[in-house]
Amino acid sequence: MTDRANEMLCHRRAFLGQGLGMAGLASVLADDGLLAAPQDARTGHARARARQMIFLHMVGAPSQLDLFDNKPILRKHHGSECPAELLEGQRFAFLGGRPKLMGSPFGFRRHGESGLELSELLPGLGSVADEVSLIKTVYTSEFNHGPAQVFAQTGFGQQGRPSLGSWLSYGLGSLSRDLPAYVVLVTGLTPGGGSSLWGNGFLPSVHQGVRFRAKGDPVLYASNPKGVDRATRGRIIDDVVKLNRLRLSRVGDPEIATRIANYELAYRMQTAVPGLMDLSQETRTTLEQYGASPEKPSFANNCLLARRLIERGVRVVQLFDQGWDHHGGIGTNLPKKAAATDRPIAALISDLRQRGLLDETLVVFGAEFGRTPMLQGDRATAGRDHHKDAFSYWLAGGGVRGGRVIGKTDDLGYYPVEDPIEIHDLHATILQLLGLDHEQLTYRYQGREFRLTDVSGRVMQQLL
After folding, report:
1. Rounded distance, CA 183 to CA 315, Å?
2. Structural domains in the chain?
3. pTM of this prediction?
4. Tens-place pLDDT, residues 185-226
């Protein structure tokens, strides 16, 4: 943009801003390309199969070998030394020496008309198996949690790039006037990758994920301070926005435009959010279906909240669930985590289907990496180390063909032998399902065009 054009743009904003409220100014800024204003839903590059997404990230990495990828031969050779050729050139987080192989202690069975094979720990997912497409051959370049989580969410192993949800907000805009385009819910501690997992990176900060809390104000400072009523707070915000408009007219900084839109959105959220987070409005049948409780925060509650957020037009809902880092206690701790998540996930898929929302809502389940086919620890405390070369994701709804399996790993579940899928392929496919071409969705920063899939990525056509 030339200096003259920028000067004319600033004068336009200043002139229009004198007679416009916050919503009107946000619309002007959107027209100028500086801001994805509320209600600024866009159509993308191609026909969208989904309008919204729920991403379920299991922090710590579930064992695909005990949940999704049945390996009878690995079970047969349980306790044998790992073949030396599988260890050459490999780096592990904790394993050393010549570890022994570890077969799954859990049985598998087939479900639905598709005959999708799943662990006995996942009866709930089995009940909706025909909605699910399972990918067994995802791989990544990172083998430690923080960098791998960042890679899974941003397509790059270091902090600073925009998250998947931020790219979707940037590319498609918002569907809701009263709620953010991108909402994050966390069960347990914040993941090792930190808030960069839902950060906007170098995109305008209006596209960052907004974390909703389970206790107190869902969003910090949503409630009015003591002694300040809504009308008074509205006048304060109006005055602050006037000052921001003056500054914007002088310097044209898009982050000031973002600040204006955020003030406006926060004011509207004061009435939208409290009712949204009140699960006591749900029927007893629905609460029991999810295993949710209005009195106690849980992953089940967050699954139900995800459905409520989707109903109200939130574009991207991201759930992070801590506690899947099973270096030990596979036989005891994994069943507990599976029991706490399997029922609400199945309920979420069924509930979306019953309400006519599943066909337009893409549900993604995955983690930063998988677990090794080798034993960590001894037989009494058996666990699995980090494994980056082959692990599982599944997708449902939103234009995905259910009841399918993509990819095949070797007899030990160590490497892909058919259809390896890198993280960038997964991201390219998710963008395609929501109507975005991963090669066209770019943002110019520091003199080059950036994209979520960096310089690779291919769409998994067999999934569509």
Report:
1. 8
2. 1-33+232-276 (no CATH), 50-218+277-463 (3.40.720.10)
3. 0.88
4. 999 999 999 999 999 999 998 999 999 987 767 776 566 677
